[in-house]
Design brief:
The protein has 104 residues and is mainly beta. It has a single domain, classed as Rieske Iron-sulfur Protein (3-layer Sandwich), CATH 2.102.10. 0% of the residues lie in helices and 50% in strands. It is built from no helices and eleven strands. The strands form three sheets. The protein has a four-stranded antiparallel β-sheet, with no helix packed on it. Strands 5-6-7-8 form a four-stranded antiparallel β-sheet, with no helix packed on it. A three-stranded antiparallel β-sheet has the order 1-11-10, with no helix packed on it. A hairpin with a 6-residue loop joins strand 7 and strand 8. It starts with a strand and ends with a strand.
Length: 104
């Protein structure tokens, strides 16, 4: 069964920032761009570096280690060296709470 679980509040992740979390043994990054909040698996598909150690530039997630870029909304690769997209998670904002959908 899947359920939405609170992971953070909107105040914890200002516009243009992202933050890593560990929930149910899963490493997750939540990014806040002009398009909204997005949740993805916090692991670069190029070399397993945490995406949360990087930054958001021009609305894209930038991996700190080798510069791979990803679309925060879809997880799609926007620039190599990564070739495989990031997995995304369903996220919703309820009031000031950020919730993600977890499979159990």
């Amino acid at each position: 069964m899947s359920e939405f679980v609170k992971i953070a509040t909107t105040a914890e992740i200002p516009m243009g920032e992202m933050k890593g979390f560990e929930v149910a043994e899963e490493k997750i990054v939540v990014a806040h761009t002009e398009k909204g909040y997005f949740a993805l698996i916090d692991e670069c598909t190029h070399d397993s570096a945490p995406i949360s150690d990087g930054r958001i530039r021009n609305g894209e997630l930038l991996c700190k280690r080798h510069g791979a870029r990803f679309d925060p909304e879809t997880g799609d690769v926007l620039a190599p060296p990564a070739l495989v997209p990031l997995d995304t998670l369903e996220l919703k904002v309820k009031g000031e709470d950020i919730l993600i959908l977890l499979d159990e």
